[in-house]
Amino acid sequence: METVAAVVVTFNRLADLKKCLDTLREQTRPLDTIFVINNGSTDGTDEWLATQPDLRVTTQANLGGAGGFATGIDTAYKA
Fold it and tell me: Residue ranges per domain, the chain?
Protein backbone atom coordinates (compact mmCIF):
# COMPACT_ATOMS: atom_id res chain seq x y z
CA MET A 1 0.00 0.00 0.00
CA GLU A 2 1.25 3.46 -0.89
CA THR A 3 1.85 5.91 1.95
CA VAL A 4 2.31 9.61 1.34
CA ALA A 5 3.72 11.93 3.99
CA ALA A 6 5.12 15.44 4.15
CA VAL A 7 7.93 16.84 6.27
CA VAL A 8 7.78 20.55 7.08
CA VAL A 9 10.58 22.35 8.94
CA THR A 10 9.87 25.68 10.60
CA PHE A 11 11.57 28.36 12.65
CA ASN A 12 9.68 31.53 13.67
CA ARG A 13 7.47 31.65 10.58
CA LEU A 14 4.05 30.86 12.04
CA ALA A 15 2.02 32.67 9.36
CA ASP A 16 3.93 30.89 6.57
CA LEU A 17 3.61 27.56 8.39
CA LYS A 18 -0.18 27.94 8.58
CA LYS A 19 -0.38 28.66 4.84
CA CYS A 20 1.86 25.70 4.04
CA LEU A 21 -0.17 23.31 6.19
CA ASP A 22 -3.47 24.57 4.75
CA THR A 23 -2.14 23.81 1.27
CA LEU A 24 -0.91 20.35 2.26
CA ARG A 25 -4.28 19.55 3.84
CA GLU A 26 -6.06 20.47 0.58
CA GLN A 27 -4.13 18.09 -1.69
CA THR A 28 -6.20 15.95 -4.06
CA ARG A 29 -4.64 12.83 -2.58
CA PRO A 30 -4.84 13.39 1.19
CA LEU A 31 -1.56 12.91 3.01
CA ASP A 32 -1.35 10.03 5.45
CA THR A 33 0.83 12.01 7.84
CA ILE A 34 2.28 15.49 8.12
CA PHE A 35 5.46 15.70 10.18
CA VAL A 36 6.36 19.16 11.46
CA ILE A 37 9.83 19.81 12.82
CA ASN A 38 9.86 22.95 14.94
CA ASN A 39 13.44 24.17 15.12
CA GLY A 40 13.04 25.99 18.44
CA SER A 41 10.58 28.70 17.37
CA THR A 42 9.86 31.47 19.88
CA ASP A 43 6.94 33.14 18.06
CA GLY A 44 4.04 31.04 19.40
CA THR A 45 4.54 28.20 16.93
CA ASP A 46 4.78 25.57 19.69
CA GLU A 47 1.53 26.69 21.27
CA TRP A 48 -0.32 26.75 17.95
CA LEU A 49 1.03 23.35 16.91
CA ALA A 50 -0.29 21.91 20.19
CA THR A 51 -3.81 22.72 18.93
CA GLN A 52 -3.35 20.73 15.70
CA PRO A 53 -4.14 17.07 16.49
CA ASP A 54 -3.57 15.82 12.94
CA LEU A 55 0.14 16.72 12.94
CA ARG A 56 3.12 14.73 14.19
CA VAL A 57 5.24 17.43 15.82
CA THR A 58 8.86 17.29 16.96
CA THR A 59 10.33 20.31 18.71
CA GLN A 60 14.11 20.56 18.91
CA ALA A 61 16.92 23.07 19.13
CA ASN A 62 17.50 24.95 15.89
CA LEU A 63 19.67 22.63 13.82
CA GLY A 64 19.15 24.63 10.64
CA GLY A 65 17.21 23.51 7.61
CA ALA A 66 19.36 20.46 6.90
CA GLY A 67 19.23 19.33 10.53
CA GLY A 68 15.48 19.81 10.62
CA PHE A 69 14.92 17.83 7.45
CA ALA A 70 17.27 15.08 8.66
CA THR A 71 15.17 14.78 11.83
CA GLY A 72 11.95 14.85 9.82
CA ILE A 73 12.97 12.20 7.30
CA ASP A 74 14.31 9.97 10.08
CA THR A 75 11.08 10.39 12.07
CA ALA A 76 8.91 9.70 9.02
CA TYR A 77 10.95 6.65 8.03
CA LYS A 78 10.62 5.15 11.52
CA ALA A 79 6.87 5.83 11.75
Answer: 5-78
